[in-house]
Amino acid sequence: MINGETEAGKNLIARVCDGYVMHGDSPEVIGNRINDVKQRREKLGLPEMKYAMAAYAIVRNTEAEVKKELNRITDVNSSARGYNNYQQWLNGTQLEKKVSLEEYSVSNRGLRSGLAGTPEQVAEQVDKFKKAGVDFFLLQCSPQLEEMERFAEAIMAYQPSVV
Q: Options 3.40.50.1010, 2.160.10.10, 3.30.1330.10, 3.20.20.30; which CATH number does 7-156 get?
């Protein structure tokens, strides 16, 4: 499993990897990336691979609770320790899209996945990714154990096959 967004990276992934791990984004963007790599593999006569996506998950019962948690995890300012690292990283990156400081604060553009919402909203978004071709997620959350338990309990009620 590997990630890459440059032409050279995508060609390498298509040629030698068993799986493609993508940074978070919308189901449409992820679906396009999956289709691109599938086409590259087909041209090479290679079999299907697995597709994964990094995503930050926030599951709460109300949108107000979601917003409060989102504010907590993205509370980053120029005096934060990671701010200089972010600026240095931005100067050297070759990603397809610029990453905001808030997105950088949770890594891998996980917030772009839209897995922040009520259980029903998150389950609907998970379904969109499944339809786009995502086989599994590399979920991020904080604190890890409590949030993973919350995700599993809430989302399994809507999509038992997810977890």
A: 3.20.20.30
Question: Which of 35, 33, 28 has its CA nearest to residue 112?
Answer: 28
Instruction: Find out whether 107 and 22 touch, Cβ atoms under 8 Å.
Output: no
Q: Is the peptide bond before 143 cis (omega within 30 degrees of 0)?
A: yes
Contacts of 98 (CB under 8 A, 6+ apart): 90
Amino acid at 135: D
In terms of pTM, does the model score above 0.85? no
CA distance 117 to 69: 10
pLDDT in tens, 97-135: 565 656 555 666 778 899 999 999 999 999 999 999 999
Length of the chain equals 163
Residue by residue, DSSP assigns 12-78 as: HHHHH-SEEEE----HHHHHHHHHHHHHHHHHHTPPP-EEEEEEE-EE-SSHHHHHHHHHHHT---T
Q: 144-156 and 119-132 are packed helices; what angle lies between their axes, rounded to 10 degrees?
A: 80
Distance, CA of 76 to chain centre = 20
